[in-house]
Amino acid sequence: MKLANYPFVSLLISFLYIQEIQAQNFTGQQKALISSINGAYKSKKITSKEYAKLLEEQEIIKNTILKAQADGFMAPDEKNRIHSKLTRARKRLAKYKTNREIY
């Protein structure tokens, strides 16, 4: 029995494989964001107070990801919540980098 004889089954398997590849990698996104935060702090684009706030926010995001992965299944609302936290953190980093306040 070949899968080629059943085009619907082979199409479904390939679709599921593509979905698995394109799944959101929240931990990878968070690691990239943390490295961006560290780079901005080392190049003096953000202050130490802003740096501390951003790292605290990253800890909250990390805990949210761990809670969502605890049962082995991420519900869509959990994914949306994590995605919005990461987006908010990226926007906050961009805002902190461009403000020209002197402390």
Uncertain stretches of 5 or more adjacent residues: 18-22
The helix/strand series, from N terminus to C terminus, equals HHHH
Structural class: mainly alpha
What is the terminal-to-terminal distance? Answer: 72 Å
Count of strand segments? 0
The number of helical runs is 4
Beta-strand content estimate = under 5%
How does the major sheet shape up?
Answer: none
Kindly report the average pLDDT value. 84
- Rg for CA atoms: 20 Å
Which term fits the overall shape?
elongated
The level of helicity is over 70%
Task: Please describe what this structure looks like.
By secondary structure, the protein is an all-alpha fold. Mean pLDDT is 84; it is low at 18-22. The protein is elongated and about 70 Å long. The protein contains four helices and no strands. The chain has a domain at 48-103. Helix 2 (26-42) packs antiparallel against helix 3 (48-69) and helix 3 (48-69) runs antiparallel to helix 4 (76-98). Helices cover 75% and strands 0% of the residues.
